[in-house]
Write a structure and sequence with these properties.
Chains A, B: Keywords: Cell membrane, Membrane, Transmembrane, Transmembrane helix. The structure is a homodimer. By secondary structure, chain A is mainly alpha-helical. The first copy, chain A, has helices spanning about 10-15, 35-60, 85-115, 120-155, 170-205, and strands at about 65-70, 75-80. Chain A has one domain. In chain A, strands 1-2 form a two-stranded antiparallel ribbon. Mean pLDDT of chain A is about 85; it is low at about 1-20.
């Protein structure tokens, strides 16, 4: 007779209990691959929409107003405010563009796994790694653009940096909206990473 | 008859199922838990050191210089530059402080798993989730502080924001060093997340 002295606390108690009884409990259901990758594709489509919206709103933020020329008193000129006047906003546009491109490529990869699920485990690992890196890039871009946007909104009296949003209202609205959408994209990337990780974790349990 | 005194906790179904078959395949090697969590503890200690260094360097950056008062021409005064003059730097210090505290707690948790590896799978999942969130927070803090630091270093002629680093040299050195160390902390968080994910992935293969 098989003697099991120290059964595992989590699983084998059922097996030991059912040793004498003829009807074995049904085996656990196979991991639900289709559901995971379907949610994954949906989130990546949302990520693409968020990244493209964010980039378009930021790029179309240009506004020209008649303002005093900085550094030259009593002198006014029509001066434009553009996103590419600030390196932080350029980095923001670059990072979100990369995130948009990345979302297309990984959505296609995810769809290919849906059609042919043989390599799903390898894809899960690579998705988890890449989503992580992309999250770092997008989060830092949101932080950088948010910090510069905040100075534009409130100014900084300690170092004499003037607020710009009292003059360039449309520009500031665009920048703020763009940052809000990019924050949503960062949240989507967190969800995507969590989805990959929890899917990996669930497969261990199965 | 086969008598199994201490069944492997992870593969009980195979053992029970193969009771009648004479040639048992060699059981797969158990996952190398100790190695993973030892590296994990080491990385978390590094993360703690990086976070504390970053916060200390940023907080001790105060410098007072005799400068023209912003907005008042022909008027000079000894004015201090402190990290808490900028909301981005305050967020930076808060985020890195949280990262330092988090690294202590998770290092203790990791050590407890080293001593008692029963719950390693659950810990892996929670570590992967929490490292992810912490990476988002630290990356955005580095982005925010970096963007403000860059304006301080180079100024922005388009909106008349003056550069500050030509005057406050010590302050800028501290801020720059602090951001560099925080960037290292963010890289450590990426490595920690990758470690958790690849460990989860390896357990599927086992």
């Amino acid at each position: 007779m098989a003697s099991i002295d120290k059964p595992d606390p989590e699983v084998p108690t059922k097996l030991v209990a059912s040793e004498g009884a003829p009807p074995l409990p049904p085996p656990p259901a196979p991991p639900c691959k289709v559901d995971y990758f379907a949610v994954d594709v949906a989130l990546r489509v949302w990520l693409f929409a968020a990244a493209v919206t964010s980039v378009v709103v930021m790029v179309t933020s240009e506004e020209t107003e008649v303002v005093p020329v900085p550094g030259v008193p009593n002198h006014i000129l029509p001066l434009p405010a553009k996103f590419n006047h600030s390196p932080a906003f350029i980095y923001f546009v670059a990072a979100l563009s990369v995130a948009g491109l990345y979302s297309i490529i990984t959505a296609l990869a995810s769809i290919s796994v849906l059609l042919k699920p043989d390599f799903s485990k390898t894809f899960l690992l690579h998705f988890a790694f890449l989503d992580l890196l992309m999250l770092g890039v997008v989060a830092s871009a949101v932080g950088a653009a948010g910090a510069v946007g905040y100075i534009g909104l409130k100014g900084n009296s300690h170092v004499g940096w003037s607020k710009e949003c009292s003059v360039y209202k449309k520009f500031c609205t665009h920048v703020g909206s763009s940052i809000a959408v990019a924050l949503f994209a960062a949240v989507l990337l967190v969800l995507l990473s969590m989805l990959s990780i929890s899917s990996l974790h669930r497969r261990i349990r199965d």
